[in-house]
Protein: Membrane fusion protein biotin-lipoyl like domain-containing protein
Amino acid sequence: MRKYLVVGLSYLAVIAWGCLPVLSNRTGVAVAKSDRVASAVQTTQARADKTSTPSSKRLKIEIEVTSPGDLLVKEGQTVAANQPIADRQSERSTLSAQLQETKLAIEKLKAAPQVDPLPPAGTKALTTPPPQSAYTEERAQITAAAAKLQDLERKYTLAQTAAQATLPETEKVRGSRIAIVQAQEKINRQQQKIDALKTVEESDEAVKDHELTKLRELNRTLIEAQTKLEQDLAAEGIAKASRSSQLADARFEITEAQRGLQLAKSRLVTAAEKHKQSEFDYQTKVAERDDRVQRTELERVKLQQTTQLQQHDRDYQLAQLTLKHNQIQKQLETIGVVRTPHQGTIRRVKLVSQHGHLLRYEVALVYTPTAPKPARLSSQQWQVEN
Structure:
């Protein structure tokens, strides 16, 4: 259209220029008007040259994206044929994830086990309580425990009597102490004898040495007696500890035997009470069985109603998920990669409008008419201006 407009204006300019001599004789106004017409023609021609050449065409492509980042081209960019210019990858990924999630939810819902109704409650036979017994085993245990306690008490009495007797080790300690006293007395007498010899001026040295040697032997005898006393005291302590330990063990055995006797008596009482309790439990179980049968039947009816409601809810959820799955599938089918049908230059990228989260852009592509036939654009609109 612009080309035809330029040609028409050119013809008008030529006619006006031919009529200029005639009009100039009448008034100068016509000349001024013709100059303005010629100027307008030149301006229009210049604008037409700036927008397109006679051998180029412009293609307007309307694109809907969710964010400016989905646009893959910018103004002034040269593009090849079938080159992507917009891709809603983020939205496609989100919808794909939602589709997979919905698909898994459908499969999980289909695979969920269904609860079958309970069968009618049956009556279970009850065991009768055991008959009254003579408790022979419990009474025999009491007799054995009493005899054991009596025997231990007799042994403890004998051990106490034996503990009052003097230990052999004690006699040895007494003998060692007497030996020490005697050795000390001998040493004292020998020392006095040596001191007396020292007062005698004409005493023989050999006699003095003999007496000193005898004193040293008495000292060694005293040391040996003291060592033996220590050993006898240690042995006496061990013997006393052993005797005390034996008495303590005997007392412990008596205590354990008393506990065993009390335990045997408790078992007899427990056995009698257990028999009474079993009779009471039998009567209670009969009443509980009748009540349980009634409650089980009520629960079966309630479970059957609940199962029907769950089945209805499952069918409803399955229908909702299937509908959602189909809707997402349709949305994915409408979202495709927008590609250029021709090789050319992006002249303009303009935001036209916004509807919710969708942004509508208009992309102007300038291309030559020798380019291949435009391919069909998925879910987009494009217009061609001559």
